[in-house]
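I have been asked to look over a protein record a colleague put together. Alongside the sequence sits a line of tokens, each denoting a local backbone shape. Please read both lines and tell me whether the tokens look consistent with the sequence. I do not need a full report, just your reasoning and any doubts. I have pasted the whole thing underneath without changing anything.
>
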Amino acid sequence: MLKGRLALVTGSTSGIGLGIARALARQGADLVLNGFGDAAQIERLRAGLASEFGIEASYEGADLSRPAEIDAMFARIAARGATVDILVNNAGIQHVARVEQFPPERWDAVIAINLSAAFHATRCALPAMQQRNWGRIVNIASAHGLVASVEKAAYVAAKHGIVGLTKVVALENARTGITCNAICPGWVLTPLVQKQIDARAAQSGQTVEQAKLALVSEKQPSQEFVTPAQLGELTVFLCSPAADQVRGVAWAIDGGWTAQ
């Protein structure tokens, strides 16, 4: 379905972003991966995706906290004669603290990666999409883009901002072939979340499975984690003709978290 399209997925060297990249590649999209990690491991990942799905895959190591590096990343893609058809703004970081104890530098870092980077990447991607009258922008927000939790001021502010940015971009391009939507996941069982589960088990004396159930049950009535593969398939749907009139939506996929 996506043969001939180029998808840039930020934060795609692991976790949610990698799950989304795999789903898009399965549909024939060429990939630009972005994220941090061991260079050799990233190269194995890039080559593996290209081989498994028969696509072109490249890697860009731009630091998304720096707007100039985002601009340079898009310039390099253009210099190769390519343009981004599908932009998935997924990269994100977290810091947990009460507002009065929140380090200002951590606030700035969370806002830069989780919100400002999505703006700058969208700003760079839109002109070529507008010229071709086709594009898909998918912003990975969070259940925390719809509701709040304590000690997550920067993350919640950024994800609410992502939902607002999504709506503005959708409205500004409403009469074009460009759509912009947000996906709002609940708990996703990524390597980072697994570390939280392991730490919880060690501190509480629970088994890992007990700690996993306790963590997810705090928010998600389904008592089941969302998977990166499920998020990938939802992204594929939003890139399909069936979603041509899905515009400016904040789509919860959270096991019932925000239905409460």
User: Anything to note?
Assistant: The chain has two domains: 6-187+227-259, 189-225. The beta strands are 6-9, 30-34, 57-60, 86-89, 135-140, 178-185, 250-253.
